[in-house]
Automatic annotation (TrEMBL):
<feature type="signal peptide">
    <location>
        <begin position="1"/>
        <end position="26"/>
    </location>
</feature>
<protein>
    <recommendedName>
        <fullName>P68 RBP/TagC-like beta-propeller domain-containing protein</fullName>
    </recommendedName>
</protein>
<dbReference type="InterPro" id="IPR006311">
    <property type="entry name" value="TAT_signal"/>
</dbReference>
<keyword id="KW-0732">Signal</keyword>
<dbReference type="InterPro" id="IPR048799">
    <property type="entry name" value="P68_RBP_TagC-like_beta-prop"/>
</dbReference>
<dbReference type="Pfam" id="PF21311">
    <property type="entry name" value="Phage_RBD_prop"/>
</dbReference>
<feature type="domain" description="P68 RBP/TagC-like beta-propeller">
    <location>
        <begin position="55"/>
        <end position="320"/>
    </location>
</feature>
Length: 326
């Protein structure tokens, strides 16, 4: 068994731990304050148009350079260079074709990319490196349900405005932390420099936490692994900060809706909090979509979550946050 590894199989909402292979290894994730999911949130951005017109799927911050990256499925009807004809939305979804929009701090578009054959965009991460930003996403899309494409590996690539990437594009580096896993996605904890990967093994979703520098070096020895607790509504995103993992669930609909935030302790796999989200009551459509950690200042860290708004053919992005720690 690799060093520093903890397998923690969590129960349902009760958070009962069924198996802990090496409890002592939890010390590699020191206890830290967690976000108060019950505290009132605030709006960061509202009704922001993206490069495409579809629902936002997830987002990530590069706070060093002042960028926000939002990913969405490509809409139907677009014909990119090299494509013989316009492609329908259904085919785009099955292929795992994504549109990535770069926004500034005020929500203005400053660039975009297309990612063909990558996946569904459930979650992404951003890593600043000087004035550049490297994105961490899923790649090598597989349509195991015949409707949507889902990533089967992770990858890292630099943002280049206006470019079109495929899984074979130069400069894209693949990562396979868990061989044989599918539905792979990831996010970044920018404060603690960690990467969280959501993946499915034998039909069950798990989350693995790594040092980001280790993953870049293709060293995949996790700090902790926890099972996804049982959720009531549609899974919509996740983020990690310190010793806690945060999950977003819910479906579209007018407030009050059914959006919930769940907090899981990386050290035990237990659910320590689950709260109904009332933020964004004014948002039309209000489908929860994506989570990310924002570093708003030297001592100001935010747990951000998104809502899609608008009507079909003219969707908009909204980001809210909670910053109270307990």
């Amino acid at each position: 068994m690799p060093t520093r590894r903890t397998f923690l199989i969590g129960g349902a909402v009760t958070g009962a731990v069924l198996l802990a292979a090496r409890p002592a290894a939890a010390a590699t994730v020191p206890r830290a304050a967690r976000f108060d999911c019950a505290a009132p949130g605030a709006r960061l951005l509202g009704d922001v148009p993206l490069h495409d017109v579809t629902v936002m799927q997830s987002f990530a911050f590069d706070d060093v350079n002042g960028h926000l990256y939002v990913v969405q499925l490509m809409a139907g009807g677009l014909q990119l260079p090299g494509e013989p004809e316009p492609v329908s939305g259904a085919v785009r979804a099955k292929n795992g074709d994504l549109c990535l929009t770069r926004l500034d701090r005020d929500g203005r578009e400053t660039g975009h990319m297309y990612l063909l054959g990558f996946g569904h965009g459930v979650q992404i991460g951003a890593e600043p490196q000087g004035r550049d930003t490297f994105l961490w996403t899923e790649v090598d899309s597989v349509s195991d349900d015949g409707v949507s494409g889902w990533g089967s590996r992770l990858c890292r690539f630099p943002f280049v405005d206006g470019s079109v990437l495929t899984p074979d594009s130069p400069g894209l580096v693949r990562h396979v932390p868990v061989p044989g896993a599918d539905r792979t996605t990831c996010g970044i904890d920018p404060v603690n420099r960690r990467l969280v990967m959501r993946h499915r093994v034998d039909g069950a979703f798990r989350y693995a936490l790594y040092d980001l520098k280790d993953v870049r070096r293709h060293r995949y020895d996790p700090l902790a692994v926890v099972a996804q607790p049982e959720l009531t509504y549609s899974f919509q995103g996740y983020a990690t900060y310190g010793s806690y993992l945060y999950l977003l669930e819910g479906t579209s609909g007018a407030a009050p809706g059914n959006t919930y935030l769940t907090c899981v302790d990386w050290r035990t796999g237990a659910v320590v909090d689950r709260q109904f989200v009332t933020d964004g009551a004014e948002v039309e459509f209000r489908e929860p979509e994506g989570m990310a950690i924002q570093v708003a200042g030297p001592k100001e860290v935010r747990l951000c979550f998104g809502f899609a708004s608008g009507v079909a053919g003219a969707r908009r992005a909204n980001v809210y946050y909670k910053d109270a720690l307990i």
